[in-house]
Design a protein that fits this description.
Elements: E1 3-5, E2 12-14, E3 16-19, H1 32-44, E4 49-51, H2 60-69, E5 78-83, E6 85-89, E7 107-111, H3 115-129, E8 136-140, H4 146-162, E9 168-173, H5 177-185, E10 190-194, H6 208-215, E11 218-222, E12 240-241, E13 244-245, H7 248-263, H8 268-274, E14 282-288, H9 292-303, H10 308-316, E15 324-325, E16 334-335
Parallel strand pairs: 3-4, 3-14, 4-5, 5-8, 8-9, 9-10, 10-11, 11-14
Antiparallel strand pairs: 1-2, 6-7, 12-13, 15-16
Helix pairs in contact: 1-2, 1-9, 3-4, 5-6, 8-9
Length: about 325
């Protein structure tokens, strides 16, 4: 599978990545056998970028991913994890984690973007995964913690990067505006953009993507199915958009996009995976993969040929926004027509 470098670093990731949140029992139990087999299938398919976080299953995702990769050649794959949520003993457990993961809540998350919190979080992740290093480290959802994240956490990560302890650093969020600030105002190399450059939401055109283009930095796209609405060939009522039931207008728009995809001999989910790659700053699309079957399907979708005429038709029909280069001398900033 083709690899692309995070700009200005030595870290290269495959264009399709394995998102390990679901093997941390996101929403439902994933048997350990399925989790291990999913990682094996991803490896066999050529995927060499794996993303996890302490938040995912209160450490379960990190433990499972580390175990699945333990016997693989370390120099042949890239692992990213995240900092900002320390896992600490839960003094008042109620049985099950309240944040969407089907695991015991003997631990709880504690926000901490301090320098000490970053160092402790990385040390804990290395212990859980059994890895000797992390290739990429993101600040995880620092929406309400800009000052500490920008002034303490990011400098701590930059120091580790400059010491060659970490290969690349950045931030991951479900919004684009603050990610653009991280690119413009901090030492971030890369951002993980969740759901904001998809067939249904191109808001990153206004901030993250111009910043990445101007500064020569990189973007990893996740959440490209917008919580499920773009994951099937034909969207139906009850499908989710950004974790809620999709409103009628977005359902209708997704169906219209699906119809255009059909006229070009492709499908809605294949187009959803391909679309972020139409912007040169986006180097990877990472998808959650719970079972070997999901891995096989996602790889097949990723490998489908998508004719350029599809994007032209979608723009002409007003179903996706148009990218227009900014004035000469002002970088590759884009705006909506």
């Amino acid at each position: 599978m083709h690899q692309r470098k995070i700009q200005n670093t030595s870290v290269a990731v495959t264009e399709l990545g394995f998102g390990a949140s679901v093997i941390g029992n996101l929403y439902r139990v994933t048997p350990v056998e399925d989790a291990m087999a999913a990682v094996d299938a991803a490896w066999e398919a050529g995927i060499r970028y794996f993303d996890t976080a302490p938040h995912y299953g209160l450490g379960l995702s990190e433990r499972r991913l580390g175990a699945a990769l333990r016997d693989r050649p370390r120099d042949e794959y890239v692992v990213s994890s995240k900092v900002g949520r320390l896992l600490v003993p839960n003094e008042e457990p109620r049985g099950v984690d309240p944040e969407g993961f089907v695991v015991r809540d003997d631990l709880r998350r504690q926000w901490d973007f301090s320098r000490d919190g970053v160092l402790r979080s990385i040390e804990d992740t290395l212990e859980r995964t059994g890895l000797d290093r992390l290739d990429v480290v993101y600040l995880h959802d620092p929406d309400d913690h800009w000052r500490q994240a920008a002034e303490e956490a990011m400098p701590a990560l930059a120091e580790l990067r400059d010491q060659n302890v970490i290969g690349a650093i950045g931030a991951g969020m479900n919004q684009s505006a603050m990610l653009a600030r991280f690119l413009r105002e901090t030492a971030a190399d890369v951002v993980m953009l969740a759901g904001r450059y998809t067939l249904l939401d191109q808001s990153a055109i206004d901030d993250v993507l111009p910043a990445a283009s101007e500064l020569g930095k990189s973007v990893v796209a996740v959440g490209v199915f917008n919580s499920g609405l773009l994951s099937g060939d034909w969207p139906v009522e009850g499908m989710k958009y950004d974790y809620q039931d999709a409103p009628p207008d977005l359902l209708a728009r997704a169906r219209a996009i699906s119809e255009v995809c059909g006229t070009h001999g492709t499908t809605l989910p294949a187009a959803a995976i391909a679309f972020p790659h139409t912007h040169p700053s986006i180097i990877n699309v990472t998808l959650g993969m719970r079972t070997p079957e999901q891995v096989v399907r996602n790889v097949e979708l990723h490998d489908q040929h998508i004719p350029d005429g599809l994007w032209d038709d979608l723009r002409t029909q007003g179903l996706i926004r148009s990218l227009v280069p900014a004035e000469p001398g002002r970088g590759e900033e884009s705006r909506c027509l």
